[in-house]
Amino acid sequence: MKWIKRFGIVILTLLITLLAICGLYEVFGMFINHIATKEQTDTLQMNLENEISDIEIVSVYSETGNTSGTGNHVDCLSSIIFSTEMQKTEIEDCLSKYYVFDEWNCYVNKKDDGYYIIYINTSAPFADNIEGH
Asked: Which residues lie below 8 Å from residue 122, measured CB to CB, with a gap of 6+?
């Protein structure tokens, strides 16, 4: 009878330990994903400021999570609104050494108010994290 009780305690302890490890792994993944998004946004801002001499940044936005609403994944989204005298093609040419503009995950658009928006959406390092559900 004692061995059944001990066996039950061992199984319960292993189950709780496994659940704790899984939970910590998910929290660690969320932490790394947010760091990756911040770094992507900071790098984008630095590249814009280095390549466009007359840039005036209006707004910086970043988001970590399932940005498309479809599927089960985590994205790193960075978006910056800025003004410059340059044209869209000139901006893309200046930044083409850093980014591949594909009109879906990375693009520059001119808004109706005259400002430009640059949008970059990449997969997170822990793309199958709980944050993407």
From this structure: 40, 75, 76, 105
- Residue 27 CA to residue 17 CA, distance in Å, equals 15
- The torsion defined by the Cα of 42, 86, 81 and 51, in degrees rounded to 10, comes to 0
> Would you give per-residue pLDDT tens digits along the chain (133 residues)?
788 889 999 999 999 999 999 999 999 999 999 999 999 999 999 999 999 999 999 999 999 998 877 778 999 999 999 999 999 999 999 999 999 999 899 999 999 999 999 999 999 999 988 887 6
Residue 67 φ/ψ, nearest 5 degrees: -75, -25
pTM of the model: 0.88
Sign of CA dihedral 41, 61, 38, 65: negative
Confirm if 129 and 65 have CB atoms less than 8 A apart. Answer: no
Closest C-alpha among 19, 20, 28, 21 to residue 126? 28
Residue 18 tokens read as: 């496994």
The structure tokens listed for 51 are 């390549």
